[in-house]
Amino acid sequence: MKLYEIVVKDIMRRKRRVLYAALGVVIGTMTVVGILTIASAGETKIYRQLEQYGPNLTVIPAINNLDMKLGNLSMGTLTVGENYIPQEQLVKIRQIADSSIRQALNITDEGDIATIAPKLYENTNVNGVSLVVVGVDAQQERIVKTWWELSKGKYIEETDEALVGAIAADLLKLNVGDTIALNGSSIKVSGILKETGSADDYQIFIALATVQSAFNKAGMISSLDIRALCNACPVEMIADSINKNIPGVRAIAVKQIAKSEMGLVEKMNNLMLALAGITLAVGLFGVINTMMASVHERIKDIGIMRAVGASRKQIIRIFIYEAVFIGILGGIIGYLFGTALAYIIGPLIFEGTTIYIVPQYFPLALILSIVVAVAATIYPAIHASEIRVADSFRSI
Amino acid sequence: MLEVSNATKIYGEGPTRVVALDNVSLTVEDGNFIAIMGPSGSGKSTLLNIIGGLDYLTSGEVILDGKRIDGYDENALVGIRRGKIAYVFQQYHLLPSLTALENVLLPLIFAGDGSNEKDAVNILKGVGLEKRADHKPSQLSGGEQQRVAIARAIVNRPNLILADEPTGNMDQKTGNEILELFKRLNEEGRSIVMVTHSPDIAAHAKEIITLQDGRITGRIQRDKKKVTS
Description:
Shape of chain B: globular
Helix content of chain A: 40-55%
Number of strands of chain B: 10
Number of helices of chain B: 8
Strand content of chain B: 25-35%
Strand content of chain A: 15-25%
Shape of chain A: elongated
Number of helices of chain A: 12
Oligomer: heterodimer
């Protein structure tokens, strides 16, 4: 039999007192877990909104306009470099993007991670109207353009299908099922987009390969959008790496538009955590009180243990073991109550937010409440260890 | 061997000053069985507490096996309580949350020998309580609780057992059974100092010391051979 087993048996005898001590820990832990859970739900919501702003990165051909001068005589400008990105660079760009994300997230997944949407823009005439035809990878484009919604029809699936922007459809009087002529090939309109307020409204989207062959631009891309799958992805790093390693292209990280919004949320979280800290401190004093009462209640037991050979350190250890037990109990209850609290209060703070259980907060809750319970027990435990045998029996 | 010389204990100061022990000297030879008698307030419990390091002297000395132990701090006394001196109390003082066996194991646990359950079982058997090993103190009679307390006192094999009115809460029959247990422990070689009210109980001791107002007023040695050896 070990010392801690004595403690466990004693706890079983004084269940109510121990539960009462644990409640002091529960209040603080519950508040911390509740606030963190609500905050993480709020952040998720904001990130989701941020994601809808579009790609994280845009890659365009690196074009330099050089002034040609001979002495003071200007000889016009010379455009250096290509207007297109060779399609084979796509593989390299994907490698750089995916490996940066893997490194940042510390994962070893082998599959594609980032969404890479190549585009080929061509000015052309359709039914006598001048507009831009965009060759796209239909699937990837759809992931990047999260805001796209169809007003009619369906997305492109075949190489001879087209998705038409709202205004373009209006101008050309196109409807689902109509055909348009594209440099000789005939393309069927499969769907029409709702108005987006962007350049997309004026464009017609057709499979990349179809556009490439129609305009004799096999293997060429005008630009590409990259969307990393995560909020924490190192967008700037990926851009740097692409710029360094792939000649002829320029990668631009799209600024996180709502950074200030996140800043506000963080400030609010800090305020709430400060409040939780105060609750934790109040709980700490509650536990100190309960433990002191528990010491007085057990003066006789402590005297008995001293009389049969317990050292001061062993008496302190007995109380610390009890504190650890109280901490574990308080941590479990605090986590459960905190999550429940988030479910009730969360939707009131961030409107329409769904609260998810965050399992990572469970170990946090445990550690937090054990630390609080042990800290609160140190003084009462030392006090208990100073009780002398004769005094303890006299006090009865 | 334990010697108390010129022990004086004074509680309080000024008008509330009480002299609990007044220049008391006493020797507990190895293997002796001393009964301390006297009316309430005569200082007999104080004397027992002084011997066992439960209370501090105002002046005088307590010497155990050639070492002065009065003035030992609580940490130093731990060493004495683990195997040299053990206590048996009138109120038994068992831990209510532990079974009889666990209470007997307690001194071994504190001494770092908590896995030695066999010793505890044997000793519990020795006091006739092997069938009650898994009972809590609240499920035991007074006599049984005192047997558990005695088993707990001897599990660390102390040379000296200090007992403060160990039969005070019992009827005569149970008291006699407990007394027999003490006599057996004494025959096995342990020294015993027992405070008691009862002349019947004291009559079984080898030496009887009577106290009054903190002074020794009488010494009776029943077994001269043993004491003078």
